[in-house]
Design brief:
With 403 residues, this protein is mainly α. Helices cover 55% and strands 8% of the residues. The strands form 3 sheets. It has a 3-stranded antiparallel beta sheet with strand order 1-2-3, with no helix packed on it. Strands 6-8-7 form a 3-stranded antiparallel beta sheet. β7 and β8 form a beta hairpin.
Length: 403
């Protein structure tokens, strides 16, 4: 084992390494060059246990943590007043952003269509919908920050992905970066799988500490999770869902999901630099990065909600329907579910299928909904292009650096 020194006087334990030997799987169709390149010794990580580790937080970073935390609390309080229509949009937006970091992208229309059971199985949209379910589970299960909760999150996220043991710790070696035949030229090689259970138990003990600011705790827990890399796939998305579980567990959020992953999208390069720094014993970069992402996320989230509120008010002018009517209830539903079917309308509004045409008609006439037919049976799907456009605009803003 060769421990790596931390930079400067930082007290956080750095990741050590150990040597192992790799030989590519003989059953796989690798080239001779790949087999030569990937046969031989390599070094893999030995993450330190952190449940009792001391974290130094300089005064400037402490102030930044406080500012970001206050913005999250303020945003959550604002959304708590009218969370019903906007909470689902923010949750879906965060799930989409988290997936985009791993190059899984889909339009708002594709995602919303998949949510109502009319999408393509195995598509990017279906993986993003699974991520949304995992994000929701992370907040629902936030009272229990333990290994079982993490396993459940991974199972929800990956249960429809072929060849993945969803909800189980990995049994083999994984790595990040180049090299499909082996880890010898990888950017980062995760620890031996035999170390994973003990490391995850230590991580959950750390997550339940109460002596650190919430954002600092969440940032370090996320970085340690990614360092352990406990699953064969889905680690990034599970690790970002874990951040939201911690925020909810410590009541930094109570009503909504702050789209922090969208904040990271403004520039992912510092995010990966921060993870590398964490492994060298530097927690400041990853904590600062989470603070920046939180502030960016709140700003972007406020813009999205403001735009959707404007659309909703404009609909009332166009529809001219009475207060408390089914039409107004449908308008609220469309903000959080911009693609709908007869089944969705009957379930959400509690009306019979025979009444759907009467309720939807004014929306189609006003240009608020567009109807299309899909499938062999010609089932009708209605979509709100205005809401879908605003959600896509949110994603576009998330991918741009702020001036």
């Amino acid at each position: 084992m060769t421990p790596q020194k931390s930079e400067g006087s930082r007290s956080w334990p750095a990741v050590g390494t150990e040597e192992a030997f790799w030989s590519p799987d003989a059953a796989m169709a690798y080239s001779n060059r790949e087999r030569r390149e990937q046969t031989g010794p390599y070094r893999r990580a030995i993450p330190a246990f952190i449940s009792n580790a001391r974290m130094d937080i300089p005064s400037t970073l402490a102030a930044r943590i406080e500012d970001a935390s206050n913005e999250i609390v303020r945003f959550d309080a604002e959304m708590g007043v009218e969370i019903a229509p906007y909470g689902a949009v923010l949750l879906r937006s965060e799930s989409t952003a988290s997936s985009r970091i791993e190059h899984l992208s889909a339009s708002a229309r594709a995602i919303a269509t998949t949510e109502v059971g009319q999408g393509q199985p195995g598509s990017n949209a279906s993986e993003i919908v699974a991520n949304t379910r995992a994000m929701q589970a992370a907040t629902d299960m936030a009272n229990d920050l333990d290994s079982d909760t993490i396993l459940v999150l991974h199972r929800i996220l990956m249960q429809d992905v072929p060849g993945i043991a969803a909800g189980q710790w990995r049994k083999g070696q994984v790595w990040i970066g180049p090299g499909t035949a082996g880890p010898r030229i990888a950017d980062y090689v995760a620890p031996d799988s035999d170390r994973v259970p003990a490391l995850m138990n230590d991580l959950t003990a750390f997550m339940n500490r109460d002596d650190l600011p919430v954002l600092a705790l969440a940032a370090a827990a996320h970085a340690q999770f990614e360092t352990i890399h406990p699953f064969p796939d889905g680690n990034g998305r599970t690790g970002r869902a874990l951040v939201h579980a911690i925020l909810r567990n410590r009541a930094l959020t109570r009503s909504t999901t702050v789209p922090i992953s969208a904040g990271l999208l403004t520039d992912t390069a510092p995010y990966f630099v921060a993870l590398t720094g964490y492994r060298k014993g530097d927690t400041e970069k990853i904590v600062s990065m989470l603070c920046s992402a939180s502030l960016s996320a709140v700003a972007n989230g406020r813009t999205l909600v403001s735009d959707l509120r404007s659309i909703r008010r404009e609909w009332d002018e166009r529809l001219k329907v009475r207060r408390g009517s089914d039409a107004l209830r449908l308008a609220d539903l469309l903000i959080r579910q911009p693609v709908i079917t007869t089944d969705v309308i009957t379930r959400e509004l509690g009306v019979t299928p025979n009444n759907v045409a009467r309720i939807v008609g004014p929306f189609v006439s006003a240009g608020i909904l567009i109807a299309t037919r899909t499938g062999s049976r010609g089932r009708t799907i209605w979509r709100s292009p205005e809401v879908l456009s605003e959600i896509d605009s949110f994603a576009d803003r998330a991918g741009r650096r702020m001036p």
